[in-house]
Amino acid sequence: MGERRSRRPAASFFVAAALVQVAMFGLSPAVASTTAAPDGWPSPPPSQGGAFLVPLPIPPVLKPVRSDATTDYYRLTERAARQHILPGPATPIWGYDGITPGPTIVQRSGRRTSLTVVNHLPDGTTVHLHGAHTAPGSDGYPTDLIRPGASQVYVYPDGQSARVMWYHDHAMAQTGPHLNKGLAGFYILHDAQEDSLHLPWGANDVPIVIQDRLFAPDNTLRYPRTPATQASGVLGDTILANAAPQPYFRVANRKVRLRLLNGSDARQYRLALSNGQPLVQIGSEGGLLPAPVRQDSIDLAPAERADVVIDFSKVPVGSKVVLQNRLGSGPTSQVLRFDVVRHVTDHSTIPASLRPIHRLSADDASVTRTFTLESAADGTWTINDKPFDPRRIDADPKLGATEVWNFYNRSPQTHVMHMHDVNFQILDLNGLPPPPGTDSWTEMVTIPPFGAATVIARFEDFTGTYVFHCHVLRHEDNAMMAQFRVRAPRPRPPA
Ligand code: C2O
Ligand code: CU
Fold first, then answer.
1. For residues 208 and 217, what is the distance between their CA atoms, to the nearest angstrom?
2. What integer pLDDT is reported at residue 45 of this predicted model?
3. Deepest in the core among 54, 177, 337, 387, taking most CB within 10 A?
4. Are 396 and 455 in contact (CB under 8 A)?
5. Distance of alpha carbon 347 from its chain centroid, rounded?
6. Lowest mean pLDDT: which of 25-34, 323-332, 486-495?
7. pLDDT for res 495
8. How far is 354 from 359, CA to CA, in rounded Å?
9. pLDDT for 490
10. In this structure, how many other beta carbons lie within 10 angstroms of the beta carbon of residue 148?
């Protein structure tokens, strides 16, 4: 830790990097950085020896190959590339279209997406759209691999309301290493109800994935698969935002909407602003909250998202505000810095109510299931004492049913349970109602060491088999996964 930060690159590097940044990014990185070079980001390599030396890159928005009355057709190629992340040599990565994060897919609710993924990597891959409600064949089942040289079409009905999702690799026992190399990107759904709220939009609506990474001295990414990381997950000592180390982000003195995603393997963040200003949370995994919540800090476990607005209108131009990680220390305590650089008039709003929610209660459920989270003597992670087995069905909810699921963590590690296909509401976390911001629709629940959580889910629209698992990737890859099969209700026997 910290060792590579103390090495000093040549002074000429700083100067060249700074000039290129000014030329390429100017005051509007969101616009300037949408044209990625084929071998990675257009951004110059960052400098070492301090934070906030490179601009925040914004992943380019993917253009459809074609569109018809109902559907937009997209294509992504998974391939190896090199991307300038740290000073010195470019880092070998695996990226969708050769970049990490991959291009952002932006879609309207109600329009169908057909995504063709071509695998030019040496390993089998599968693509999961995290947060999507989709048929099993397009869900990226861990053994439903796209072989090297092959391709697969995924169809997303996009019937859900506006929200931020992300697509990432989900290959059996390889999800951790594949994500660590870069296989993840944003998928943002908009809808008319969201439009009517006049939240900050366009260049002021910015997706940011926060990831911690470990780099070797030659700038290659490390992913130590040891018994220790199998227990605790892989923790990096370098914090990246959109694959840039602790970047700066130039903003105007207005409201800015950030779609924050924790794309880390295991690290949890407690995000807060250095000037003491609150983060106004407007959405979570399941889309817009019923009403904005002013948060002094927001906790994000792996795969969790927070949709927040920061209002810089009272911050004097020339100020700098750091997005801190209050769970970190030293190099992991800072994520990025906002530089308020100009005056503008802001026409966006944060309405007092956003989207109504129908809250479920335990009385709505017909079935209750219980899952214990534990590790076996050899360190394998288990759910109800069993490691993942694709041939075994662990729960068989009926189509249309509402069920209560209890998770008991019987280990000294945090687990972050994620259900595919369905959204749920958290009813209870360690005996208490879920904290504000996590009490709406979601597909993630963070269960502290030896803690317990109760969630309520509705199994709608699709029959078939889906996985649920811990999203600490070393846990997921070491068998902390199970599956449910949604079955069609049995027709009534004739009277
Ligand atoms: Cu984000 Cu099953 O995954
Ligand atoms: Cu876990």
1. 26
2. 37
3. 54
4. no
5. 29
6. 25-34
7. 59
8. 15
9. 76
10. 13
Q: Is the CB of 250 under 6 A from ligand 1?
A: no
Report whether residue 306 contacts ligand 1, using a CB cutoff of 6 Å. Answer: no
pLDDT, greater one: 19 or 434: 434
- 409 C-alpha to center of ligand 2: Å? 9
Q: What is the rounded CA–CA span in Å between residue 84 and residue 86?
A: 6
Q: Ligand 2 center to residue 86 CA distance, Å?
A: 30
The residue with tokens 């299931």 is 369
Max intra-chain CA distance, the chain = 86
Dihedral angle sign, alpha carbons of residues 109, 206, 244, 337: negative
pLDDT tens track for 206-241? 999 999 999 999 999 999 999 999 999 999 999 999
User: Cα(376)–Cα(385) distance, rounded to whole angstroms?
Assistant: 7
Apex 456 CA angle, 407 and 261, nearest 5: 75
Any atom of ligand 1 within 6 Å of the Cβ of 305: no
H runs (alpha helix) in 186-238: 192-195, 227-232
Q: For residues 482 and 248, what is the distance between their CA atoms, to the nearest angstrom?
A: 41
E strands, 263-366, in order: 269-273, 279-284, 287-295, 298-300, 305-311, 320-325, 334-342
Judge whether residue 443 has pLDDT over 90. Answer: yes
